[in-house]
Amino acid sequence: MPPTEGQIRDRKLMQVLLGFAHTMASDYSAQDALDDLLRQAPSLLGVDGLGVMLLDDNDDLRFVSASDDRVRLIEQLQLDYDEGPCLLAYITGTPIYADDLCQDTRFPTFGPVAVESGLVAVHSFPMRVGDTRLGALNLYRTTPGPLDESSKQLGGLFADMASSYLVSARQVDDVSRQVIGIRQALERNGVIEQAKGVLMHGHGLTADAAFDLLRHFARSNRRKVLEVAESFMDGQLTAADLGLDSHQVIEIDHHG
Q: Where does the record place the ANTAR domain (predicted)?
């Protein structure tokens, strides 16, 4: 028995989502991957446009991607008006179906503007992972009418899978930033340790006394210890410049 039209559509959508997952696992940026996904998905979901809003680092909801310029404008207007199905879906954590914005009284400011643009129906699905809310996925149509049950299920699945992939990408990005931070810290410490080593082996200081000498000079000259260590290793500062003499070494050893 040949597959039905609905089954073919479902398979194509799953292929698009799997392609999105593979892209997110590559060096492709999350923004580019999401933009590509939203350009491909409308015909598969039986809608005329898609948009995504996500929380930013300040926990503010913001527009991040859309299938076309018209949807991009309408997404931003919901944020500007602080009103619309997308915001309501995010706030309530439940899907919001605005089958006909000409008749829907929940959005008195946003509704007429959307209708004037030609988008007369908006169906919004919350994006979340577990109890953590991420934003909303928004489906737009140029004709009024409800989504059928299959489209509702696909919209929810689409939102859930996209949420999971985006969270995974953020986690990878967080780990990458942590690795970069650790590498930079090791590099900083390496320069300081080198400077300490020269002071210890070349001038007979203990490790604590060598570090205190660098720190004392840095504080006295309102500089960072790293900068002082780099200048010392580059030859821009000498041990004498740092104030190395027998009296100061004794003072640093006892009061550093």
A: 172-233
